[in-house]
Amino acid sequence: MSKPFYITTTLPYVNAAPHIGFAFELVSADIIARHKRLAGYEVFFNTGTDEHGVKVFRKAKEEGKDPQTYVDEYAKKYRALLSALGISPSVHFIRTTDAAHKKAAQELWKRSFNAGDIYKKKYRIKYCVGCELEKTESELENGHCQVHPHLDIEIIEEENYFFRLSAYQERLLAFYEEHNDFVVPPFRLNEMRSLIRGKGLEDFSISRLKAKMPWGVPVPGDSEQVFYVWFDALVSYISALGWPDDEASFRKWWIETGGVVQFAGKDQIRQQAVMWQAMLMSASLPPSKQIVIHGFIQSGGEKMSKSLGNVIDPFALVKEYGTDAVRFYLARHVASFEDSDFTLEKFKEAYNADLANGIGNLVARILQMSNQYVSNPIKFPDTFYNSDNLSGEGKAVLTHLHKFELNNAVFVLWNWMQHLDILIQDGKPFEVAKTNKIAAEKQLIYLLQQLAEITVLLEPFMPETSRRIKTAIKANKKPENLFPRKE
RNA sequence: GUCGGGGUAGCUCAAUUGGCUAGAGCGUAGCACUCAUAAGGCUAAGGUUGUGAGUUCAAUCCUCACCCCCGACACCA
């Protein structure tokens, strides 16, 4: 029986259309999901949408819609992104407005409450009358709202529920100590360590007054309050498995797997590696397995913003270049862990160099010749993935994938292809064929075998391209232009 | 400010414990070729490795000072 593996993205918040940063996270997770599947695991791959909270509530109001209608529309947009990016069709899509999820969130609340980790407390919030918004300390400048510096910040008292995060400092530190690779890359975990050791953890509020903001999961046993969106959204990683009702599913995907592998942006570390783990501890549930933190995508050295006009739309990119080209670029040219710059010029340059001139041309030249000089199609190594027969390059690809270094994994594949180009140049099968067909055929069979191995390993990154090359090799026929050159 | 990570070819990045002429891809220029998407190959140009000092037979790597960039410092969903 194959081993289970559970991987999830963060659920994007639906206050804006999908952007390239989330496309990167989705594609990265999908590559790992496909890789694991090919390596023989049974994979549960989860994504979805986070739909509660004040920002959604307000945005819906702005657009003159009721919140449910608004989030339904956005959920549809995010689902559309999945097919645009060629995400595994078997992906599970959870919405935090699903009835089962809300029930799960309430169940976790109850467990945490029973454990004595949830209590009610009056606290002061800073409120800007101009914005009609609650402000955090970091949003203020010299004690004033940056948008309305002439207005005084009002202090309002509100009674909310708090989660006893402070009680988990030592347990979290001990857990990090035992699991040094809990967060990838490791420096992100060190940030959390120094946060806990330095300033320490404070309890945080996990509910909001329903009268002010009704768009949330009702707090069990208190009709006045709803969940603060964080406390609800994080539970999605287990509600997606059917927790708490489906015990068999939870046991298989959360216990047997050793927990979930979570992909998340660098603004998510605290929530995912600290709060969420403490919540699990509080409910007496095992922790996540690993958190993989990626950087942000910038455009032209600046943060993407509508006003700068440098926003990269993943849908437009797919329309112009195709799904696999976008997947390739995200995997190869966006740094796996650091911030990266993304411009249309860079994308086009990489498309022409790596896809049109690279893999596209290589496949065309090999299959053109093999079609002429190789009498029978080679036996395609369908079960090659993860086998002992893999070449050194193949093993290197898998090693990089194991470390979530997607860009290095793809780099190895492209080096390998360049090596085949050199073999063709040196061996000149096209010339040898004029005088010695058998020798030429032998050379070409070797090239086809190498290409086949590359094709197998390419599948997690570019599934459609891999499939097309595989078909071409099996038919021993040159495929249609894989990546037409863009001028 | 405190803590952490960086500053290497036009661009993006490599350089096992300090050790041969600091590497690769892209981009640029030239050469020969033609199976291929005017693609591919070969060659070349391009670096006082942020600055100054120190340790050492030897420093991109270690030490100190300085300059610059980035991240964390909590409810940003």
Automatic annotation (TrEMBL):
EC number(s) given by UniProt: 6.1.1.10
Keywords: Aminoacyl-tRNA synthetase, ATP-binding, Ligase, Metal-binding, Nucleotide-binding, Protein biosynthesis, Zinc
SUPFAM superfamilies: Anticodon-binding domain of a subclass of class I aminoacyl-tRNA synthetases (SSF47323), Nucleotidylyl transferase (SSF52374)
Pfam families membership: tRNA-synt_1e (PF01406), tRNA-synt_1g (PF09334)
Gene3D superfamilies: 2.170.220.10, HUPs, Isoleucyl-tRNA Synthetase, Domain 1
Required cofactor names: Zn(2+)
Statement: the UniProt record of this protein carries the keyword Protein biosynthesis: yes
Superkingdom of source: Bacteria
Residues of the tRNA synthetases class I catalytic domain: 14-102
Signal peptide limits: none
A GO molecular function held by the record: ATP binding
BP-aspect Gene Ontology terms: methionyl-tRNA aminoacylation
All residue ranges annotated as the Methionyl/Leucyl tRNA synthetase domain in the record: 136-366
Recorded family membership: Belongs to the class-I aminoacyl-tRNA synthetase family.
Protein function: Is required not only for elongation of protein synthesis but also for the initiation of all mRNA translation through initiator tRNA(fMet) aminoacylation.
Protein name from the UniProt record: Methionine--tRNA ligase
